Backbone:
């Protein structure tokens, strides 16, 4: 069997998460609100990249004459189409958008950009499809995300158990390498709290964020490994529970 490439593996993870995505997507709703506030009051054509199961469609529709949702995971699109059958839904990737040049007034992408294989290529696609004077509101998670969880795993072994998060400086440099008329950047930090480690891991899986690209073998989550992780994680427990940190870098770009 031919091994899956990165985008195929990401799509598989989000296909698995589609059924219960919304019940775990608290952070995604918060970050979507930030991008909505950064966006224009109205637009002729809005493109929603990483639309998921129509997660933010209800908020975008009143602000655009035409809406188009794109997602890498067919299962997400099926749920979106069931809810909004009259809208346009396309299966596609950030780095090869199935959209015409300079055809979009507002590109909206909430927590999908961290799943691209080549950030510069993805941003070149955003620059290609947006009209002159059009607005791009995108965000991505950066270093600091899952900080306590990662440090707890590091006491168990030296393997990679989460996605690699780039520094805010690197992301800002790559996004800003295009000839944007104006660029606005905003870093936000959010923390979720969970009663125990299994609940926290379940939340990460619930939003499809558990895919890890690696060459090593992390092995099975045995009872012993879980016990070691739980013991290490307890040192980070706060009054509200075990923390799951999210560092989110937001951009408003005008072409």
Residues:
């Amino acid at each position: 069997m031919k091994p899956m490439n990165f985008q195929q593996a990401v799509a598989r993870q989000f296909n698995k998460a589609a059924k219960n995505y919304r019940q775990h997507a608290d952070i995604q709703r918060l970050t979507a609100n930030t991008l909505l506030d950064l966006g224009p009051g109205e637009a002729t054509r809005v493109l929603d990249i990483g639309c998921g199961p129509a997660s933010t469609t209800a908020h975008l529709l009143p602000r655009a004459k035409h809406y188009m949702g794109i997602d890498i995971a067919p299962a997400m699109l099926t749920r979106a189409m069931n809810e909004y059958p009259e809208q346009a839904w396309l299966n596609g990737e950030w780095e090869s958008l199935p959209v015409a040049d300079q055809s979009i007034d507002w590109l909206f992408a909430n927590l999908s950009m961290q799943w691209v294989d080549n950030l510069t290529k993805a941003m070149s696609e955003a620059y290609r499809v947006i009209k002159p004077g059009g607005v791009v509101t995108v965000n991505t998670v950066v270093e600091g995300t899952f900080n306590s969880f990662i440090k707890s795993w590091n006491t168990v072994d030296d393997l990679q158990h989460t996605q690699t998060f780039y520094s805010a400086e690197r992301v800002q440099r790559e996004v800003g390498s295009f000839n944007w008329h104006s660029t606005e950047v905003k870093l936000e930090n959010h923390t979720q709290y969970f009663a125990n480690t299994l609940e926290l891991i379940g939340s990460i899986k619930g939003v499809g964020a558990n895919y890890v690209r690696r060459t090593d073998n992390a092995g099975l989550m045995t009872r012993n490994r879980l016990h070691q992780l739980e013991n290490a994680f307890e040192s980070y427990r706060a009054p509200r529970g075990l923390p799951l940190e999210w560092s989110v870098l937001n951009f408003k770009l005008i072409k």
Q: What stands out?
A: The domain at 6-254 is CATH 3.40.50.150 (Rossmann fold). The beta strands are 43-49, 64-71, 88-91, 104-109, 130-141, 182-194, 242-254. The CA atoms of residues 14 and 208 lie 5 Å apart. The first strand starts at residue 43 and ends at 49.
